[in-house]
């Protein structure tokens, strides 16, 4: 699905280049559970941003190849990258990143609207029902518990049936019981959607359940 060849990323700090990683080559296969592990500062979140084209690599190539579709993220236009994210990528953030002024239903509708899918409300309602949030569809994020907010974040990420789910420390700010529930939920939804999961995590419970683990050095 993703083929990385000699990828490097640095940030400019005055006159100094701060390298996050260099010469990174790796294949992420379709329909697999992948985990990116490594200490803080090793580039886990940076790599997720590279995979969805939010930032560009300084060196190397990143290609997305699936079902006859191919896109070189390192040379694609802004328009093509925007369409790629809208149709192929679902993103789950550690701190939810829910829109506080929108209800649960409206948050789930956002990715559907971006892809111009039909029967938007029916699809959003079905996703909320599947994740046990049907009775909370008119609640605002601040009215939801931490576990409910994370389930809503999962519902939003899967709403438009993306090929790839990128999750950045999805259990990082949850207690042990809620974290386990979110892990189970991610696996269930990924299997149900026949998607590929790529998750950056310090949580050994996550990496232990993945088919493939990529370790980034500090």
Outline the structure in words:
This protein has 7 helices and 9 strands; from the N terminus they run E-E-E-H-E-E-H-E-H-H-H-E-H-E-H-E. With 218 residues, the chain is an alpha/beta fold. The strands form 2 sheets. Strands 6-7-8-3-9 form a 5-stranded parallel β-sheet, sandwiched between helices. It has a 4-stranded antiparallel β-sheet with strand order 2-1-4-5, with helices on one face. Strand 1 and strand 2 (16-28) form a beta hairpin. Helix 3 runs parallel beside helix 5. The radius of gyration is 17 Å and the shape is globular.
Report low-confidence residues grouped into runs of 5 or more. Answer: none
Helix residue percentage? 25-40%
| Count of helical regions | 7
Strand order of the largest sheet: 6-7-8-3-9
Order of helices and strands: EEEHEEHEHHHEHEHE
Please compute the radius of gyration using only Cα atoms: 17 Å
> For the report, how would you describe the main beta sheet?
5 strands, parallel
Q: Give the overall silhouette.
A: globular
**Through-space gap between termini:** 26 Å
Q: Proportion of β residues?
A: 25-35%
Integer average pLDDT: 90
Can you lay out the helices and strands and say which pair or pack?
Blueprint: E1 2-13, E2 16-28, E3 33-37, H1 44-51, E4 59-66, E5 69-72, H2 78-88, E6 89-92, H3 104-114, H4 120-130, H5 146-158, E7 164-168, H6 176-193, E8 196-200, H7 204-207, E9 212-215
Helix pairs in contact: 3-4, 3-5, 5-6
């Amino acid at each position: 699905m993703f083929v990385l060849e000699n990828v490097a990323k640095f940030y400019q700090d005055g006159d100094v280049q701060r390298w996050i990683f260099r010469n990174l080559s790796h294949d992420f296969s379709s329909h697999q559970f992948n985990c990116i592990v490594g200490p803080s500062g090793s580039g886990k979140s940076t790599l997720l941003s590279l995979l969805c084209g939010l930032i560009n690599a300084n060196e190397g190539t990143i290609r997305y190849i699936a079902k006859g579709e191919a896109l070189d993220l390192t040379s694609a236009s802004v328009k093509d990258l925007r369409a790629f994210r809208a149709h192929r990528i679902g993103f789950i953030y550690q701190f939810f990143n829910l829109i506080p002024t929108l209800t649960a239903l409206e948050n789930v509708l956002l990715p559907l609207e971006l892809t111009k899918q039909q029967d938007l409300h029916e699809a959003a309602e079905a996703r909320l029902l599947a994740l046990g949030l049907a009775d909370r569809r008119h609640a605002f994020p601040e009215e939801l518990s931490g576990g409910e907010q994370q389930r809503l974040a999962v519902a939003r990420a899967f709403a438009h049936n993306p090929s790839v789910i990128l999750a950045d420390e999805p259990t990082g700010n949850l207690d042990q019981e809620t974290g386990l529930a979110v892990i189970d939920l991610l696996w269930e939804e990924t299997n149900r959607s026949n998607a590929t999961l790529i998750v950056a995590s310090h949580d050994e419970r996550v990496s232990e359940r993945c088919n493939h683990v990529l370790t980034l050095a500090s």
